[in-house]
Amino acid sequence: MSERTLAIIKPDAVKKNVIGDIIHRYEQAGLKPIAIKMIHLSQSVAEGFYAVHKSRPFFESLCTFMSSGSAVVLVLQGDNAIKKNRELMGATDPAKADAGTIRKVHGTNIEFNAVHGSDSPETAQFEVGYFFPGMELSR
Ligand code: ADP
Ligand code: MG
């Protein structure tokens, strides 16, 4: 079933100049970018995006990291896009990620882990809408 998922190329990966490599991996896996923009998140925009993690000990640090530089925000579309992107990303901690995954290749540690991907249809709907108004998305 064709789905949409929200992906972010995080500031650490942008600083490492691997935007092109990561987008290439999405395309090779059949995840088609249908919306894309580079933005510098403010602290409050990062906090709103990660609101589900508000009570976690890493919340402040995560939002500071996410607003530390430009990020690339994309909507990816394809069959089983949500699960497929999670597999392509690898585990949250790059040290535990499978070989060949984006986080294994480009992540630094459990916080600076190169990419974000929605983890369920519900979060994908919230996250796509958080960054892209419906009128900007192809139908
Ligand atoms: P994922 O991004 O794999 O869905 P989570 O939703 O659990 O992982 O966490 C969101 C983000 O918060 C992670 O991608 C990572 O950047 C950061 N993070 C998660 N766990 C930790 C931790 N223990 N310490 C620091 N940062 C963390
Ligand atoms: Mg998550």
What does this entry look like structurally?
The chain contains seven helices and four strands, in the order βααβααβααβα. It starts with a strand and ends in an 8-residue tail after the last helix. α3 packs across α4 (59-66). It is α+β, with helices and mostly antiparallel strands. The structure holds adenosine-5'-diphosphate and magnesium ion. Residues 53, 58, 62, 92, 110-111, 113, 116, 119 line the site of adenosine-5'-diphosphate (ADP).
> What share of residues is helical?
25-40%
Task: Indicate the overall shape.
Answer: globular
Number of strands: 4
Main sheet strand line-up: 2-3-1-4
Whole-Å distance between the termini? 16 Å
Please mark out the parts with pLDDT under 50 across 5 or more consecutive residues, or reply none. none
Bound ligands, each once:
adenosine-5'-diphosphate, magnesium ion
Number of helices: 7
What's the average pLDDT? 97
Return the string of H and E elements: EHHEHHEHHEH
Derived from helix and strand composition plus strand pairing, the structural class reads alpha+beta
Query: Roughly how many Å is the radius of gyration?
Result: 14 Å
Major sheet: size, sense and barrel closure? 4 strands, antiparallel
- Share of residues in strands: 15-25%
Précis, in short:
The protein is built from seven helices and four strands; from the N terminus they run βααβααβααβα. The protein is an alpha+beta fold.
